[in-house]
Amino acid sequence: MARALTQREILTELEPVAGAALDRHLAMVKEWHPHDYVPWDEGRNFAQLGGVDWDPEQSRLGEVAKAALVTNLLTEDNLPSYHREIAENFSLDGAWGTWVGRWTAEENRHSVVLRDYLVVTRGVDPVALENARMTHMTNGFAPPLDAVTAAGQAGFLYSVAYVSFQELATRISHRNTAQFCEDPIAEDIMQRLALDENLHMIFYRTLCGAALDLVPDQAMVAIDAIVENFRMPGAGMPDFRRNGVLMAKHGVYDLRQHLEEVLLPVMRQWNIFGRNDFGPAGEQARERLAAFLGDLEHVRVPRFEEQRDRALARERARL
Fold this sequence. Notes:
Order of helices and strands: HHHHHHHHHHHH
Mean pLDDT: 91
Radius of gyration: 21 Å
Largest sheet: none
Low-confidence stretches: none
Number of helices: 12
CATH superfamily: Ribonucleotide Reductase, subunit A
Distance between the termini: 64 Å
Strand content: under 5%
Helix content: over 70%
CATH topology: Ribonucleotide Reductase, subunit A
Number of strands: 0
Structural class: mainly alpha
CATH architecture: Orthogonal Bundle
């Protein structure tokens, strides 16, 4: 049986892969600037500077678009917590450090453009938005305890598995949010962010795939723990449950999308169920994962869709 590698050993072995993935990312990423996406001529002062404070009638966004945009923005706002997690569990040396800095800078643009757009267009209450930001960032982000315990440690393998799924989930949420904005400017913003998230996902997916080749059992245990305990990084924000239910009910991001557009495609990319290099620990983790995915497909997703359809029918009946 192969010896389990330490986190430092794994990072050292995978640094050439990280360097190649970083070079590919820098060759593919498109330069863009948040100020180019904001309709500044719609802006006006608020009451403190002699203008008018926000009123719900000023917003042209629907309820679903507001919930999705606020959720996406507050998620991006919590970047300091994510940077800390990535920096602690990756490395600040060599290609790893360059990636951590580059990824952080790119993600920060997302919160800049979303907030500028929402405040300038008066899409949501800026006071409520700021209060929610303060609460969410004060609480911060930490990996789910159950996943950490199951994986044995909250280290590189846990982190790289988590962001492989999370970045793709965020891309899909951004892309689908665009469809509810009914504003071509907001649609362009969300499509732009989705393109960034896709490139981030490719980097992390590549590194997690390389980790599977290097330490199959250790990586498989981490992947299973992440999938079974997955939560989006905004789970602790104010009104997350309400907004999450609204987004799921209307197809911004729901359980079937999570299964069919996030979990299964990534695991196919890694050939999880076609590999023959697992030892006992990896095989057991793969079996647990298969059982979990089966329950998700045959029990949880149909149950969610039945409940969603009933809720939508009740809404239509009230109209």
